[in-house]
């Protein structure tokens, strides 16, 4: 079986490739990635020379290139992780989100049709459901919750989901979709909450918490997400959507305080800053369907996962210091100067 992993030099796709290349030596994995600011070949270093692994640089929006690649490689399965993934960037610059997350997916769907790929899996997000109120902890997102997006990022991801389902209904393309809650773990780009707070706390820099830090996210350790996708691709029902989450709801302030405690740093580093426009209040997933139908269970709780993550950041400073010492400095200065 030959599997194309698009966006595999990013956070989740990278963890997917690292895990599956070693777990399934009999399967061939090809990572395709445009190496945007979020893609990093250092993530894939430990599998670069494995006989069942190959990296190709390329853009999912480049139709001629994609068709040529599909013609040559004859993929059985395509798993699409490639995306612009940061909500704050989507507020600054929505265009690239529509271009990559919608048009890019359409190119992949067309290529899967043309070259008879036996499964297209779209990696989506809980953010397509919008948000839940903070005072109704009984409410969770199920696969039946209507799509109701808030940011250009989530709107682009919801559009891709709808296109994917349209290709199933209209052309019988064998597709599946997974919608996962917030991930954290190794190789997470330090623009996102958890790695940003770890890297800044280690440097004794102020920690910018949006609003009052009361917004809630449902956190899942990245390899639990990868294992769920592997199950869906191999055993999931074509045409179906699966929610993924581990019931690990935390306020942002709780997350930041946990990190400070683990690193033995003072809470005085916390700095409340101007809120994100349109900021979703709460995400919370109901993963009953994937648990009952596919037997998926997460391996990590938030407590075990965050400890493992912090340990990784402490032991792999090279990986993230290369990032924060580069053009990231300009990004941070630009994005946070408006948030005094
Ligand atoms: P990421 O930003 O770390 O990685 C995205 C990767 O896609 C990068 O390597 C980038 O170079 C690549 N890419 C971007 N545009 C491309 C293009 N046009 N052609 C080819 N490659 C391109 O993102 P991530 O956090 O790993 O997220 C992966 C997927 O999972 C995304 O689709 C995201 O929407 C979804 N998701 C993320 C989370 C989360 O918490 N991070 C949760 C649920 C779902
Ligand atoms: P983020 O990691 O950007 O993921 P998402 O917006 O996709 O959930 O942010 C997680 C939460 O943390 C979100 O409520 C916004 C908040 N946040 C901060 O308070 N400060 C920050 O510097 C960042 C990046 C995020």
Q: Which features does this protein show?
A:
single chain; 340 residues; alpha/beta; Rossmann fold; three-stranded mixed beta sheet; 12 strands; 17% strand; binds nicotinamide-adenine-dinucleotide; binds thymidine-5'-diphosphate
Commentary on this structure:
This protein has a single domain, classed as Rossmann fold, CATH 3.40.50.720. The chain has a 7-stranded parallel beta sheet, sandwiched between helices. The termini are far apart. The radius of gyration is 19 Å and the shape is globular. 43% of the residues lie in helices and 17% in strands. Helix 1 (11-23) packs across helix 7, helix 2 (63-73) runs parallel beside helix 4 and helix 4 runs parallel beside helix 5 (152-171). The protein is built from 12 helices and 12 strands. It has 340 residues and is of the alpha/beta class. The mean pLDDT is 98. The structure holds nicotinamide-adenine-dinucleotide and thymidine-5'-diphosphate. The site of nicotinamide-adenine-dinucleotide (NAD) has 29 residues, from helix 1, helix 4, strand 5 and strand 7.
CATH superfamily: NAD(P)-binding Rossmann-like Domain
Structural class: alpha/beta
Cα-based radius of gyration, to the nearest Å? 19 Å
Strand count, sense and closure of the main sheet?
Answer: 7 strands, parallel
The name of the CATH topology is Rossmann fold
Distance between the termini: 52 Å
Question: Into how many domains do the coordinates divide?
Answer: 1
